[in-house]
Amino acid sequence: MFREVDVLLAGNKEGTVHVCIGGVFCATDVDIRAPATEEGEENHVMITCLSRDLRLLSAVVLNFDPHRQKSALYLQVMSVDLIRERYCELQHLSLLYSHVSSLLHYTSDTLRCMTEAWEDVLLTMDIKLAKYSTTLKEGASVADELLVLLACGRARSELRDFLLDELTAKGVKKIGLSLETSYTRVRKYSLNCLSSVIQALQFHLGEVLGMARWKERFGNLGISTDSLQVCIKSLGTFALKNQELQSVIDESLKSMKSFFMWIYVVILKLGEEPVPSNMKQHLNAEELKLVVHFLKKRLAKSAAGSSQSFNLELVGQYLVDEDLKIVEEKQPSFWERLLQEAELDSNAIPWLFSPSPVKSLLQLLNSLVRDVAAAFATTKETICQTFTPKPSVPLLPSTTGDSEVSKIDSKIGELVCEGKRCVYYPSARDLFLVVYGDETQQMRCCRACVRGVPGLADQEKSGTEPLNLLSVQVYNGETLSVLLEYRSSERDDVMFNAVAQLPVKPVLNLANEAFGELALEGYECHDVGRFLTQIHSLGPFHAVSMAVSGPRRLAAVFSRRTKKVRLFDVDAEEEEEEEEEEG
User: Fold this and answer.
1) For residues 410 and 426, is the Cβ–Cβ distance under 8 A?
2) 575 and 433: one domain?
3) Host H or E run for residue 80
4) Do 481 and 472 touch, CB atoms closer than 8 A?
5) Pairing of strands 525-527, 444-449
6) Which neighbouring-strand residues pair with 301?
7) Which PANTHER family match (predicted)?
8) Looking at the 3D structure of the chain, how many domains does it have?
9) String of b and e for 501-535 (b: at least 16 CB within 10 Å)?
């Protein structure tokens, strides 16, 4: 019975195979290296596969010694019982990880959109105000000058010239409109997008936490409840910072709108220009309070290290990967006062979220991503410990120089014949067939090649050089389909192709009769051309690959650049072919 689960295997040049469930969730990293690997030797995982019943993981490893310029090829096999027994749980965990990962990517994209929507329009005004502040007397400030203007309605000549020549009514109006548009867009992303994705993340992380507490089903996977609790608290801190950003935007919009409207009317009056009718009324008490608050708080000198001279811009600092430069003091909330009175630490209570006053929104997102990655990475070590390695099988011996090992570029496959599990690995001209033994029987390997094909009239008669194996596919549990390339007896410069069936049983008999325990000296290459059946000659087809379907009894051979495809019935006694050409 085959298990339906998607598994992606990725090997690297360090001898590691990454096992990814669903192609997204990296369940574990398996260290697959050649035996007796010394320091400095390289282990390249050339190809790897997982059996369809999820019992065995097979990998072909190229061991290379750069000092002695020697290389050897090994087959590494490991038993993966946990994947077979808990594949449903792993698939469910992979599905949740894909949800969480996609939501984190969505959050990152939302923050990027917020950064693009935010415009640093106040930087120009900050530069002009800083330049004007240098002309003031010692002890005077821009905020004091504007407060006098607000209270008395009079301005010194220097302030008058600054407002009319530097800021100008047109410039103030443009800054006010741009600022309102920018802040409104940022607030929309924060309120509609971030708030929704935070709720979705909390739901999925809570579901994973529930799985981690179900020890009977998910305990073997190594999911840590502590690391997931850290993720949830980190998400709560991120949610609090998002609410803080929304309150900062709301407060900034109100105070800046009142300030820019007031300063715009003042500049018009100083320039003796007509004031719009909707702005002629005086500021009410609330608007006056907002303007005074803006002058005292936003026109105060910035702290050292800030890129601004004044505290005009508060929103942009939440969207960069730096600590907040301007942190306003706030009164403790009801819950904070309650914790202080009860002398409780919010960090010790898992369902209470602690604010982070000096961290930006982007910093907290990066911290959340790291915590989530660490939480799901706890499965790697636990699952890796359940993998049981089997004895290594040397396929090609250690050689020097430009050996045939470096020319191998093929695939690995697995089949079951007469109750025996086999792994086949075709190279350029050789076919390695490895038979797994039980606990009392050694693993055996047969190295086969095709030096001659009976029944091919156009084949060269020398029979000394093995034919090229272009492709080897599993036709059924007892037969392999092979795509051959050989030199024609009529034309030496043209290569012909043929498709044939290779029964596995006689090849297994060769392995059982010829080999005892495996050794590093390599294997004699056995000619299995006499076992080939149902041979179909394709002529000079320039074939490169093949695909077969045992239940449909069909084979498809593809030419170079897939310009030609030839289909035929493999079991037919007479060759019935259908050729399709494109381009």
Assistant:
1) yes
2) yes
3) none
4) yes
5) parallel
6) 310
7) ANAPHASE PROMOTING COMPLEX SUBUNIT 4 APC4 (PTHR13260), ANAPHASE-PROMOTING COMPLEX SUBUNIT 4 (PTHR13260:SF0)
8) 3
9) bbbbeebbebbeeebeebeeeebeebebbebbebb
> 339 with 195: CB under 8 angstroms?
no
Q: In which domain, by residue range, is 47 found?
A: 1-80+387-401
Does residue 346 form part of some domain? no
pLDDT in tens, 289-331: 888 888 888 877 655 555 566 777 888 889 999 888 888 777 7
Q: Which of 462, 451, 441, 470 is nearest to 525 (CA)?
A: 451
How big is the CA angle at 153 (ends 152 and 157), to the nearest 5 degrees? 105
Sheet with strand 16-21: strands edge to edge: 7-11, 16-21, 25-31
- Is residue 335 a part of any domain in this protein? no
What's the pLDDT tens digit per position in 569-578? Answer: 877 654 444 4
Residue 155, CB half-sphere, CA atoms under 13 Å: how many?
19
Which alpha helices (DSSP H) does 118-138 contain, by range?
122-133
Name 388's bridge partners: 79
Looking at the structure, tell me whether residues 278 and 424 fall in a common domain.
no
Amino acid letter for position 283: L
Residue 300, both tokens: 């105060």
Letter string b/e over residues 218-247, b meaning 16 or more CB atoms within 10 A of that residue's CB: bebbbbbbebbbbbbbbbbbbbbbbebbbe
Q: Are residues 391 and 426 in the same domain?
A: no
Do 38 and 93 lie in one domain? The reply is no
pLDDT in tens, 514-525: 343 444 455 678
Q: Whose structure tokens read 């194996």?
A: 469
List own/partner pairs for 424-427 with CB under 8 A and 24 or more apart. 424/472, 424/480, 425/47, 425/60, 425/75, 425/395, 426/469, 426/471, 426/472, 427/396, 427/469
Strand ranges in 51-113 using DSSP code E only, listed in sequence order:
56-65, 70-79
Place 441 in a pLDDT band, splitting at 50, 70 and 90: low
Interior CA angle at 219 toward 214 and 222, to 5°? Answer: 130
Q: What is the pTM of this model?
A: 0.77
Report the b/e string of 401-435 with b at 16+ CB within 10 A: eebebeebebebbbbbbeebbbbbbbbebbbbbbb
Query: How many angstroms separate the CA atoms of 397 and 408, rounded?
Result: 14
Q: Where is 400: in which H helix or E strand?
A: strand 393-400
Short-list 191, 300, 297, CA closest to 249: 191
157/53 Cα distance (integer angstroms) = 88
Residue in the block written with tokens 């086969």: 448
CA 151, distance to chain mean position in Å, is 59
